[in-house]
Design a protein that fits this description.
Length: 218
């Protein structure tokens, strides 16, 4: 809770604590957190199933079984007909299945400490892509010991962060040289256009309007 000293003392009063049902809230939060952990653990089990299934489908045995019955299955077939999901979701599971085990463990630890808020396969996939890049980019001296290499890799994993996602906060259009150009603005105040070439045009137009407004007020 983000409370100041007075607020902390206020919610510690027994009648307030009872009135706000803080104990019930705490118990419910714990149940939700435990349910999230269980759901994530089951998802990791599915990652293992998908990884093994893809490997078998590509194996000589898998290809032989398909050929004998006259079938040709792709990963898309495996996704839709066996796992009842889309190909991109199957590929997500497959990517996670190829992650270094230390990446998954670091992700879980960051979830436990609250550094990562969402304990989910989608967040692990995002984290995993960045973490594996960090692992591969670790630089150590040629005479570094195994312990030194492991320490450097551990530090790289611990420093891995998921970039904050931006949100679209507004949109509009401008008329430039007779053309209607639509644009959106995200939470970083960046301008987004369907045609990237129009971004600078929109920025120049807006800056020009702001400059004229400033001059008129002087």
């Amino acid at each position: 809770m983000n409370l100041n000293q007075i607020e902390t003392e206020f919610i510690a009063i027994p009648t307030v604590k009872e009135g706000l049902k803080l104990s019930d809230k705490s118990r419910l939060d714990t149940r939700i957190k435990n349910a999230s952990k269980k759901s994530f653990a089951l998802s990791l089990e599915k990652v293992t199933l998908v990884t093994n299934a893809i490997q078998w489908l590509k194996s000589d045995e898998g290809q032989r079984e398909l050929n004998e019955i006259g079938l040709h299955w792709t990963q898309e077939d495996l996704a839709e007909k066996v796992f009842e999901t889309k190909r991109n979701q199957l590929q997500k599971y497959a990517r996670i299945g190829r992650l270094d085990e230390r990446v998954i463990q670091t992700f879980i630890e960051k979830c436990n400490t609250g550094e990562i808020k969402s304990r989910s396969i989608n967040e692990l996939d995002k984290f995993g892509k960045i973490a594996m890049q960090n692992l591969n980019n670790v630089e150590v001296s040629e005479d570094a010991t195994n312990e030194e290499v492991e320490t450097a890799q551990s530090e790289a994993l611990n420093e891995t962060e998921i970039p904050a996602e931006t949100e679209i906060i507004g949109g509009a259009f401008v008329i430039i040289d007779g053309r209607k150009i639509s644009f959106k603005v995200d939470s970083n105040m960046d301008i987004i256009c369907r045609n990237a070439d129009n971004i600078e045009l929109v920025k120049s137009f807006i800056n020009g309007v702001c400059d004229r407004h400033t001059n008129n007020n002087q």
